[in-house]
Amino acid sequence: MAGTRLPPLIEAVLSVGTDLELRATLQHIVDSAAELTGARHAALDTVDPGRDGLTGIRTAGAVPRCPESLRVPIRVQDEHFGDLHLAGKRQAAPFTTEDEQLLHVLATQAGIAIGNARLYEAARQRERWIEGAAAVTTALLSGESAADALTTVAERARILADAAAGVILQRTDEGGMEIVTASTYQDPGDIVGAVIRPGSPVLEQLLGGEPVFIDDSATDPRMTTHVRHRFGPSMMLPLQADGRLIGTLALPRRRGDRPYTAVERLLACQFAYQAAAALVLADAQHGRERLAVYEDRDRIARDLHDLVVQRLFATGMMLESTQRRSPGGDVRETLARAVEELRSTVQEVRTAIFSLQQPPAEAPATLRGRVLRETAGAAAVLGFQPSTRFTGPVDSLVPGQVATRLLAALRRALATASRRPGVSRVEVAVDVTAGLADGRAGVRLTVRDDGAREDGAPADGAGRTVTWQAPL
């Protein structure tokens, strides 16, 4: 044995440790066992394929069950990893005691090589997941919107887990959970919107922030969504930080794909925890940025009110005093126009102050804010910003239905003004202090522009005025 078989044994022992990738290592073991013993068939069947995400490793062809077969166990530390099966020795010779001794030596070295490969594979997976979590944190803190942030988490997790889809579920008002974003190889449109309804067996675990591991989504009775039939092994991981459940990250694989290993489950849970913490930090950062914007807008509004409005008001008072003392009619008329212009300017500045005090990027809820939004939209068509004036407490006096009709009339008037030639100024006024002709309280909308007359002639200074009013 020492003279003729030792060099091949040494070569075989050395070869099984040359590759740190686990599957390649196992294939080396099988090939070396067949070569050492002269077996036509060799296979390595693992005791727990799910731990390493493996199926059987074998040479070409199946290993027949026959008395002339040979089986040797492989142990990794104190664990029974699997069994090496050999059958069909060449020249129809039986396996010898020497063959079995060679396999025992090979199996011992294989156990060491498998342990090293496992450590390497776990370290490599851990490095990938850590890098993925760091990339997600960087992306989330770079200023993404809430929807984009969830999509980033779902997509990165799908890639790291080698899953068919990355899915985020969030709580519904009815007490269930709904898929709000999904990352898949194909169009995820039919996945988004799928709902786990209240009463589902898996829902209590998800809402309680517990991870759920599923062997086959298509057959597991806990799964109730209409898309479950297309998926196999799955992980459903809580996105939870500081006691706050943001949602659930689901990572389903295709039907028939290998199950998730214990290492993959652990790393995915750690990723979900870090992603949830990053989502909370990103939300807090966005909150601080919004607060800074609010504070800056408030400061500008205070400066406008305390400096500009007061100075304009004081200037108007001086002009009115001068007007009363002026002997000339032309001078008094000029001063009157200047005073009126100053009053209009004060109203417009106050309107600007009000708009600064509104939360940015949110649909206004008050009538004043909705009127300002309409005039701002018209500015894109007109090429300039219409002036807007409010008289009286329009937000508290105008009911919802009247406000809706007023806004419709405003849109029509602005659209008409945008089509008229020669329009360079549009004035919008909303007044709740002017009563109706029959004495009832009412609201009046006035839209005035300086465009050409209906017959196409140049404007004579009066332009066109549209008036709409309704009782309150």
Please explain how this structure is put together.
Helices cover 48% and strands 21% of the residues. It is an alpha+beta fold and 472 residues long. A six-stranded antiparallel beta sheet has the order 7-6-5-10-9-8. A four-stranded antiparallel beta sheet has the order 2-1-4-3, covered by helices on one side. A four-stranded mixed beta sheet has the order 11-12-13-14. Strand 5 and strand 6 (177-184) form a beta hairpin. The longest helix is centred in the middle third of the chain and has 64 residues, at 262-325. The protein is rod-shaped and about 135 Å long.
Give the termini distance in whole angstroms.
110 Å
The major β-sheet equals: 6 strands, antiparallel
- Give helix and strand order, one letter per element, not per position: HHEHEEEHHEEEHEEEHHHEHHEEE
* Rg calculated over all Cα atoms: 39 Å
Strand fraction equals 15-25%
Average pLDDT: 79
Structural class: alpha+beta
Helical segment tally? 11
State the helical fraction.
Answer: 40-55%
Low-confidence stretches: 1-5
The tally of strands reads 14
Major sheet strand order: 7-6-5-10-9-8
Write down the overall geometry.
Answer: rod-shaped
Summarize, please.
Helix content is 48%, strand content 21%. The protein is an alpha+beta fold and 472 residues long.
